[in-house]
Amino acid sequence: MNQTTKAQDAAGHNGITEGVIWKQLLLFFFPILFGTFFQQLYNTIDAVIVGRFVGKEALAAVGGPTGTLINLLIGFFIGLSSGATVIISQFYGAKQEKRVREAVHTAITFSVITGILFTFIGIIGAPFALKAMGTPDDILHYAVVFMRVYFAGVTANLIYNMGAGILRAIGDSKRPLYFLIASCFTNIILDILFVVCLHMGVGGAALATVLSQLLSAVLVIRLLVRTRESYRLIPKALKVHPDMLKRIIRIGFPAGLQSVMYSLSNIIIQSSINTLGTDTIAAWTAYGKIDSIFFTIVSAFGIAITTFVGQNHGAGKKDRIYKGIRVCMTMCIASSIALSFLFYTFGNHIFLLFTADPSVISIGTEILRYLAPVYVTYICIEICSGSLRGTGDCWIPMLLTCLGVCVLRIVWIWVAVPLHPTIETVIFSYPMTWVTTSILFIFYFTFFSRLKWRRLPVLLRRQAP
Fold this sequence. Notes:
Largest sheet: none
Distance between the termini: 25 Å
Strand content: under 5%
Helix content: over 70%
């Protein structure tokens, strides 16, 4: 069987360009959901264990300022890697095997180079960045230790994320999930060993995370090396193809820049939170771990629709793209409403996982019950931007998000919070910016992007190498 036939069989097997849309989206969505969930569980487990066995200062350090700074760099890379996912999904859907191979080798090589760069930035810059955020002295040491250990092994994290993106691009969302489950359970065991048994503190929690991510990276690389499909990774062939890197960056850079803008706005928010005391920082940290469940679900829908649109875009199936977006939006809204109800009703009990401190629990419950009912206002942002990225339309969604979410949120924090410095004033920036940006996306998606998609066959001919 030749390679083209194999690619066609694989495309037919994953069903992204064929079959009942809602079934295919869910079959692709659930592995992504659980995979993203287990990825989020890394830091959540760290927070639970250090909060319970080290103290609330360690809890505040592991998930507060450190999480925000880590997300700044990792989020930027994941945004860039989405360019590789889109490119590979389009070439795979169009059965252009040579281009798939070039994209895969460029993507993995780029991950290694970026990982080395991030290691130096993270180790050297950690104390300066944390102090610039106004991190309290009682948690500064914990935060510096965690960040330096984490960034010492960050390359494994980047390799896994890129490798998982490659597999998802060709319709395989199950095996990345299996790898994350294995590494997550490894993280739990190592957390207990390093923190509870060996009393290594936050450094032990960070080391457990690094070693677990190394396992997931080894597993995904092993799979890519052993496959016989067009996306096979050949170590001797690792190199950067300049043309392919330009394509990846052209699509991925707007998403990476958008993530950086999100992170910068979150850094400013975290700086405001830092002025409200250790209890509030710890409550915000715990809330962030609970809140990540919602964003895990929405992100999984976003990844699913990006790959769905990307492959159908490559196959020239315009009508299927429209139907898929409507179906995905409906499922995401229903999931959001259900989760908001659960959080609002039972959220106060979830905080007991992180701490027994009544003040921290009280503040955290107040935050959760304020924000959970308005989660649904964020849905349009994720689904619309993911759909547009699947077609290669990245800059306008990035600009809409940066203006509607990031810039507006920063202005609010700088203007309103000094006048009324409370946690309620800080967190009001979330629903305000979600509603504003959703309106912008609905307007753009309805009146402008469809005009471009009507020219889909012409665009596809232009993009062909």
